[in-house]
Amino acid sequence: MLNDVEMLNCILQNAEMGCQGVADVRKNISSERSVDKLLREQLTRYGKIYRVAAGMLHSRGAEINHISPVSRKLSEFTAKRDLKRDCSASHVAEMMIKGNTMGVNKLAHSMRKYDRSDSNITLLAKKLLDTEEEHIREMRAFL
Questions:
Q1: CB–CB of 26/104 below 8 Å?
Q2: Which of 21, 55, 78, 88 is most exposed, with minimal Cβ within 10 Å?
Q3: Distance (Å, rounded) from C-alpha 109 to C-alpha 97?
Q4: CA–CA dist 140, 101 (Å, integer)
Q5: Is the pLDDT confidence value at 31 over 70?
Q6: What phi-psi label fits residue 116: left (phi over 0), alpha (psi between -120 and 50 degrees) or beta?
Q7: Are 53 and 124 in contact (CB under 8 A)?
Q8: Total structural domains in the chain?
Q9: What is the Cα 40 distance to its own chain's centre?
Q10: Distances (CA, A) of 53 to 11, 30, 77, 100, 108
């Protein structure tokens, strides 16, 4: 079972990875304005969830466990490599859908392990899950 702090860190890391992935993709696209506008909106949503999770951890006096530097670099490298070959809106959408799907799977797995002792944490996790699923729906329009 995951306790409150572990679940909050899971939410925080998931949102942080979303921010990282979006930022890495945005750095490597230039001409796709419509998809970039949507990515900016998604980055804002991830940022809000990240800040709420960080605030909840801080209020508990808990340490924030950020994503690893290796995960950051791998995200950056992968985005740069993949977008060098194809930076079309459809390819960007495909990449983002894959990332969102990984986020959904990891979060759903963690939610099953969470003891659900704090309803606010459960609501934040559900909000992030809904956000990830909404991002997938939004990106499908570019496929």
A1: no
A2: 55
A3: 18
A4: 12
A5: no
A6: left
A7: yes
A8: 1
A9: 13
A10: 7, 32, 27, 19, 17
| pLDDT tens per residue, range 77-113 | 999 999 999 989 999 999 999 999 999 999 999 999 9
Quickly count helices (H) and strands (E) in the chain.
Answer: 5, 0
Partner residues linked to 114 by β-bridges: 2
Say if CB 114 and CB 125 are below 8 A apart: yes
Q: Rounded CA gap, 109 and 100, in Å?
A: 14
Q: Is the pLDDT of residue 32 over 80?
A: no
Q: How far apart are CA 81 and CA 72, in angstroms?
A: 14
Question: CA dihedral in degrees (119, 120, 121, 124; nearest 10)?
Answer: 120
First-last CA distance in the chain: 38
Angle among Cα 101, 119, 123 to the nearest 5 degrees reads: 35
Percentage of the chain modeled with pLDDT above 90 = 95
**Residue 113 belongs to domain with CATH number:** 1.20.1260.10
Residue type, 87: C
**C-alpha angle 96-40-11 in degrees, rounded to nearest 5:** 65
